[in-house]
Amino acid sequence: MAYANKEMVVGQELPSVLKVISLENLRLFSGWPVRTMHTDWEIAKKSGLPAPIAQGLMSQAFISEICTSFFGKSWFETGRLDVRFVSYTVPGDRILVKGVVKEKAAEGASVRLACDVWCENQSGDKTCIGTASALVY
Question: I want to staple 19 with a disulfide (CB 3.0 to 4.6 A). Which of 24, 53, 90, 95 is the partner?
Fold first, then answer.
């Protein structure tokens, strides 16, 4: 696994992680027994959805996890994250969380690594896209 450092090259992949989405995970994240389109099949169907959908912040948390693994302590001190949710995630989905370094920029005595980050489902469709960056020393 690669860890962020000043010598990192553009194109370097962040450590990926695979998440298997279950209704139980959605309910834990959303505060079950509150019934919403995130936790209840009937409410999701009435809302025009195929199933309960994961909250977008769940994908954001997955991306933050790979950034923590890659940047370490610096992620908490200097990290920036901007994401957009482009499709929903439902129980049974297998979400691969990925990232790649797209830019290096000097920032004082440090280097800020900017990365493209995303979540994609088992079909390769992106469900969440964004950018993340942090300083490396």
Answer: 95
